[in-house]
Amino acid sequence: MAELDQLWIVRHGESVGNVAAAKAETDGVESIDLTDRDADVPLSDLGREQAAATGRWLTGLAQGNRPTVAVVSPYRRTAQTAEAALADTGIPGSVDERLRDRELGILDLLTSLGVRKRYPDEVTRRNRLGKFYYRPPGGESWADVALRLRALLGDLRRDHTGERVVLFGHEAIVLLLRYLIEGLDEPTLVRLARETTVANCSVTGWAADESGRLRLVTFNNVDHLHRDHTATTREDEVDAEPV
């Protein structure tokens, strides 16, 4: 990644799916009350406010520090976040499906209780394989997502030499970018995922050091939301998995 000057990733704003998932877990039910497919879940009202605040942060950056290009997950909540955040910046954007959220197959729209009740064998299999390599039927493992992100990073390095790139993605994407860019090992990534809930519209970023290597400069940062007096949320994605 030596050819990029700076790289950021913004997690999408709070979605109606985040709200529904939190309620379902609190209520102790087995499934999440959503009719949209995951790709079509929109932002909540608060999520739109968070996205607008992120846009004010971007427009407030000095011209020499502002991203020169944006790449966006095709999912609706992420596209809406990018649209609001980029509206007044003049930053050109494109969509790349490799930034989409992790697909959980048969576990989609289930709470952690629902997974334990309906698919106890999957709980056993997940516990045996571990978070990184476990692939639910019809879904992806974290390793699968890392493979598509590795390809995306290679393309960014080739196509945007010396540029400053901002990505709009999802919680798992943020964590797996740290894994890839910083060369984390599996235990470190799993511990990071266990200890961290990536905040909605948080910013994680890397900048090239004197050797040209990207180094982490900020992680899960929501200072721009606090400055804008916008409420922060740290809500997991819609899909639960065995624990």
UniProtKB/TrEMBL annotation:
Q: What is the lineage of its organism?
A: Bacteria, Bacillati, Actinomycetota, Actinomycetes, Micromonosporales
- Isomerase: is it a keyword of this entry? yes
Which Pfam family would be a valid example here? His_Phos_1
The species is: Plantactinospora siamensis
Matches recorded under PROSITE patterns: PG_MUTASE
* InterPro entries per UniProt: His_Pase_superF_clade-1, His_PPase_superfam, PG/BPGM_mutase_AS, PGM_Phosphatase
Can the keyword Isomerase be found in this entry's annotation?
A: yes
Q: What is this protein called?
A: Histidine phosphatase family protein
Keywords on this record? Glycolysis, Isomerase
